[in-house]
């Protein structure tokens, strides 16, 4: 009697573990076999329900995943027949029927791994809106609930649910295929997948609005996705993106104070950086660079790796960083990258050199409404002792920021500049001369 | 599965792509068994809009909505899925001047 209870408990534990490790694989294969997202989801839940009944009685099957796929498929065909929608001409039904004969389809390791890749590429299909790509990827590939995604993106759950419903309807009605793209279009389609993953990461790393600067769960989810992609499709840029995310993530504990205040890279306590993530991230960067087929994610990761190996901001190889920004600008010209390069130049050649570049970018009007451009200008002016200019730029940056911790940071800096201006009224002229 | 590729162009670009190029494109699609039908349209100022309200036919001049780009022509194609349809649409010459909307055809209920 007691043995039976213990056995049942351990079956439940096994089932939970199988759900965590296999449910996404099972779903990905069922979508291929049934040709429909909703039918596959329902079938998967039916399969786990059947397992909950049968496994305690009959024991855990030797290949739980194959059992679940098979059970799910039978349940789906049953459901189709019951709804009298079953018709041999109906394609989903026909596909499911064909799959009955083909047991290799859900036991063969390679085709199952392909299913997960198919699922990723379908969820990130460029015919879906970017918002829908993100929502669908988190829902179907990561297995997050609609409520969890809505919460993480500060979106009403009903809006998010509708976004997912619409995306699934478009996949079905416009017939977006469940395919891994052919070699000719793989690079372009992979870029879309990487964009989704990085967007999820950044949403978690630096929320664009709201009171919390880090939403760890989304960053962790993005890193898991990155790992999965590298495992399934070890392309250099996928490897570079995973490295980039790990290197950014390694600074999580150092980039804000316990009270949530922003700490800039140069002021961070580097002993708080996560050494394991830095080692892994750096290794991935090197792996991607060695392929000689790397792109912008790898170069950004390489920049991050240079910071990671420096004992302090002053002892960072800024010349190397400037060189990497030059390479990045050649691949993807953008005023934001120019701004970052200007900061590196300021570190290499002094704040005046950096400020000249920042002013040139702002004069073009490209980043006139970009808060970090004004914050950067303010910081460089402050270092040059140009307090009035620094004040004006901090004020402009403050007006543009939506993030509460960032606002507090800028207000602190603004107050510092005001105090500096008072303290150094007499020595200001000398300072200015020195800076020149 | 059928997709309708709707070609949109700004008024002044309606003749930007030479007709012989469009004809060659349509013939190419037809030879590969991809084409159901294709036509170019007269400018939108020749359009008449017809509505039936309470059994009465109401006729108005012009298009349904005023937009910068107008419907300039269409290709009704046969494709396996959206990826294939997109590949065909990308080969339609005016795609480089304006845009091509790819719409799946809905089969009418039996």
Distance between the termini of chain B: 17 Å
pLDDT averaged residue by residue of chain B: 91
The count of β-strands of chain B is: 6
Helix content of chain B: 10-25%
Largest sheet of chain A: none
Counted by DSSP, the helix tally of chain A is: 21
User: What is the CATH homology-level superfamily of chain B?
Assistant: Dimeric alpha+beta barrel
Give the strand order of the largest sheet of chain B, numbering strands 1, 2, ... along the chain: 2-5-1-6
Helical fraction of chain A: over 70%
Structural class computed from helices and strand pairing of chain A: mainly alpha
Name the assembly state.
heterodimer
Task: Give the termini separation of chain A.
Answer: 87 Å
Under CATH, the topology of chain B can be stated as Alpha-Beta Plaits
What integer value in Å does the Rg of chain B equal?
A: 16 Å
Low-confidence stretches of chain A: 431-436
Largest interface (C-beta under 8 Å): A-B, 10 and 9 residues
Question: What is the tally of helical segments of chain B?
Answer: 2
Q: Give the uncertain stretches of chain B in residue-range form.
A: none
What are the key terms here?
heterodimer; A: mainly alpha; Serine Threonine Protein Phosphatase 5, Tetratricopeptide repeat; 21 helices; elongated; disordered C terminus; B: 110 residues; alpha+beta; Alpha-Beta Plaits; two-stranded antiparallel ribbon; 2 helices; globular
Tell me what the structure shows.
- The complex is a heterodimer of chains A (436) and B (110).
- Chain A is 74% helix and 0% strand.
- Chain A contains 21 helices and no strands.
- The longest helix of chain A is centred in the N-terminal third of the chain and has 33 residues, at 2-34.
- The model of chain A is unreliable at 431-436 (pLDDT under 50).
- With 110 residues, chain B is of the alpha+beta class.
